[in-house]
Amino acid sequence: MNYQPRTALLPLLPICLSVTSFIAVALFDSHAKAQPSATPMQEYQPVAHARAAGANTCVGTLTALSRLTIDGNYAAMSNWNKSAPDAHMFNSVIGINHANATIPKAVSVLVTAPNAVHNCDATTVQVQPSALPCATLQNNMMQDKRNILRQLASLSIIDSNTAVRYLLLPGDAKNCVIVAVGNYTVQ
């Protein structure tokens, strides 16, 4: 079975790769507790949390990233700056239960932040254990000749042409954990 990264919405987002760091953990407070997943007609939990908190600048970006990363039953917990939610980073941690036996459970982290030009910077981190070995996943992913294989501390990293970087973290000889990190600036 080939691992197919979920990148269907990436071409819809006007994005450019952006590497930024912002650490303001002390300013954040957890407000939203995990809830069961919503019906398809309801808003994604991270988006509902952002709206309820008043973190509205990046709601469109958060909606697109939610569509990109949430593909099963899920629950989300979100954090934001209490004193100025629309001026700082917003993040949501999402636990996902997939129907797929190869990758039954996953975690996604969505982070958005308004930037100086009233756009949004965003980062996604997806962690998905796989029943396949890392070598098999690497071979499957490298079939796309646009992907670039790199090494980081003896770990395989695959840079895709979709602003997503995949780290393959071996569990044992029979399985692998896929960590996918995407950085976006929405203009």
Q: What percent of residues are in strands?
A: 35-45%
- Give the structural class: mainly beta
Percent of residues in helices: 10-25%
Rough outline = globular
Helices and strands, in order, run as EEHHEEEEHEEEE
The figure for the number of domains is 1
Largest sheet: 10 strands, antiparallel
The separation of the N and C termini measures 36 Å
Radius of gyration: 17 Å
Low-pLDDT ranges: 1-40
Number of strands: 10
Number of helices, where a helix is a run of at least 4 consecutive DSSP H or I residues: 3
Mean pLDDT: 78
Features of the shown structure:
10-stranded antiparallel β-sheet; mainly beta; single chain; 3 helices; disordered N terminus; globular; 187 residues
Question: What does it look like?
Answer:
- Helix content is 15%, strand content 41%.
- It has 187 residues and is mostly beta strands.
- It has one domain.
- Strands 1, 2, 3, 4, 5, 6, 7, 8, 9 and 10 form a 10-stranded antiparallel β-sheet that branches.
- A hairpin with a 2-residue loop joins strand 7 and strand 8.
- Helix 1 packs antiparallel against helix 2.
- The longest helix has 11 residues.
- The chain is globular, with a radius of gyration of 17 Å.
- It starts with 14 loop residues before the first strand and ends with a strand.
- The N terminus is likely disordered.
